[in-house]
Amino acid sequence: MSHLNEHAQPRREPSAKVVRFDPALSRRTSAPQVTATDGKHRGDVIHGRFGPGARSRGDASRDRHEHPVGDGDSGARNLSRVPRVLIVDHDIARCSELGELFTDFGYDAFESSSPEQAEGWWRHLQEVDVVLLDMNLPERGAFSLLDKLLNLADTEHRYPPAVVVLARRDQRTLALEAMHEGAFDWQETPLDIALLGHAIARAAEHVRLSRVDRMFQHLLNHSV
Question: Is residue 175 part of a domain?
């Protein structure tokens, strides 16, 4: 089993790239637009895959369903689609590796290295299940984005995402503050793949059950 842990594995220089948001490239299986960087970003790089049972990107792509947010029939169809994970990480190498990893896990993964890119994905996709949020975005950008996503979900009558924040051990206070502001969970960096995978699975299930509850409430309210 692989780990995002610089103490457990030797670090290699990643090929740094930024995946730019483009609505025409909404699927991660499409060829992304990349922009070369100066290579100063270094990350804790994943070595290997989660296991032989990991699904291919082609499998995840075939299972995608582009249904809008809604209750009733559309809400029921929405429960069957592949969960969407939006990764917001200023460490470009780690962001790309996590995108590949969660695609192999069977999720639809979308990458952004800034709050602006994350907002672009949010508005284009209409619905995101889990947001993996780096607490080290400049100028407390993580808190700003967390607040904005939750408020947008409320004002636009969309399902709020479950936000899992990434923080170093010495940033525990920041992580707890983020949870107080509405984050679902936090994971310590350097990352442990097994713990992270479990956290994302719990977050996705939490969102799915919230949708089930909302769907049944809708059915009850309209059956009287």
Answer: yes
